[in-house]
Amino acid sequence: MNAPLQGHTASNLNTTAFDTVLEVDRVSLEYRTPQRVVRATHEVSFEVDRSDRFVLLGPSGCGKSTLLKAVAGFIEPVAGSIRLDGQTVREPGPDRIVVFQEFDQLPPWKTVKQNVMFPLLASRTLGRREAEARALHYLEKVGLAAFADAYPHTLSGGMKARVAIARALAMQPKILLMDEPFAALDALTRRKMQEELLELWDEVRFTLLFVTHSIEEALVVGNRILLLSPHPGRVRAEVGAHAFDLHSLGGADFQQAALRIHQLLFEGRTEDAGAELAFQDVRLAY
Ligand SMILES: Nc1ncnc2c1ncn2[C@@H]1O[C@H](COP(=O)(O)OP(=O)(O)OP(=O)(O)O)[C@@H](O)[C@H]1O
Ligand SMILES: [Mg+2]
Predict the structure, then answer these.
(1) Spatial strand order in the sheet of 79-84
(2) 19-95+179-286 belongs to which homologous superfamily?
(3) What Å distances lie between residue 11 and 82, 222, 230, CA to CA?
(4) Beta bridge partners of 179
(5) Which residues of the chain have pLDDT under 70?
(6) From 160's CA, which of 34, 57, 98, 110 has a CA 20 to 30 Å away?
C-alpha cells in the first residue's frame, strides 16, 4: 500500500488530503412515465474527496444506478445539485466515465486497443498516435498488453472487465463511476477483479464512485460507504471502511462490520450504531 503516486493524478500531488471532487447536495431524482412519477432518490447528500473509493450501498431499487447516472449527467435532479470540482453537472462529459456491469459495451468489431482508444479519439482528447500510446499504457496496467490486437469475443469475462477499466482510466476522468462492474462475473473472478482494482488504485489513485448491493464488496472495495434505504433512496448512514481489504475477509472484525451494516440497512437500527461499530467514523443521517 506504499506505492508512490503515479499517472494522471500526479498534478494533484499538491492538493490537500481532503480535497472534495464531487458534491451531491440534497438530490432528488425521478422517472416520469405517462402513468406515474417514480421518485428514485429523496434528498441524498454526500461528498467524495479526491482519491476516495466511495461506495453507494443499498438494496435493489434504492436508486444507486440512478444516482450514478445523475452524476454522469444523463439524468437531471428534480431538486438539489451535483457539482464536480465546483461546477454544476448539466450533461455527460469526458471528466466522468462510467463502467457498467455488462461488458458487451465493447464494440465487437474493434480490437482491444481500438476499444480503449475510441473514447480518446471520439472526444478529441488526443490525436491517434498519443491515443495509441495512452491505450497501451493502461492496457499494460491491467495486464492486457499482450491482447491489444485481440477482439472482445475472444476474451474471458474478467478480461473484458479489465478492458472496460483500462478504457475508462485512459480518459483520466476526474471521477470513475462503476455500476456493479463485477456482478456478472463468477465469485473467484470477481474477487480477483476486486484485488486488481485495489492494486490499480494503489498505483494511480483515481477517484472512484462504486455501486454495489454486496456488503462484502463494499467493505473490500470502499474506504467510505454510503448506506441507502429503499423507495425512494435516502441516506441512512455513512461508514468508514478503510480498515478492511481482501485480507480482512472472514476475519472477526470484518464479519462484525458486515453484520452491523446489514442491521443498519435492513433493521433500521441507527441508534447507538456509532458506539457499537468498530468503524473509525460513522455518521448517521437519521
Ligand atoms: N427507466 C425507468 N423508468 C421508471 N422507473 C425507473 C427507471 N429506472 C429505474 N426506475 C425505478 O427507480 C428506482 C431506482 O432504480 P435504480 O435502478 O436506480 O435502483 P438500483 O439501486 O440501482 O437497483 P439494483 O441494485 O437492482 O441495480 C426503482 O424503483 C426503479 O423501479
Ligand atoms: Mg442498479
Answers:
(1) 37-49, 20-32, 79-84, 87-88
(2) P-loop containing nucleotide triphosphate hydrolases (3.40.50.300)
(3) 24, 23, 39
(4) 211
(5) 1-18, 103-104, 268-286
(6) 57
Amino acid 105: pLDDT: 77
How many whole angstroms separate alpha carbon 102 and alpha carbon 160? 9
Distance 230 CA to ligand 2 centre (A): 12
If one residue of 57, 64, 227, 231 were mutated to test the ligand 1 pocket, choosing by the most ligand atoms within 8 A of its CB, it would be: 64
Q: What is the pLDDT of residue 17?
A: 53
Cβ of residue 56 lying under 6 Å from some atom of ligand 1 = no
> Does ligand 1 have an atom closer than 6 angstroms to the CB of 61?
yes
Sequence ranges of the domains in the chain:
19-95+179-286, 102-172
Distance CA 195, CA 215 (A): 16
Predicted pLDDT of residue 126? 95
Are residues 178 and 102 in contact, defined by beta-carbon separation less than 8 angstroms? no
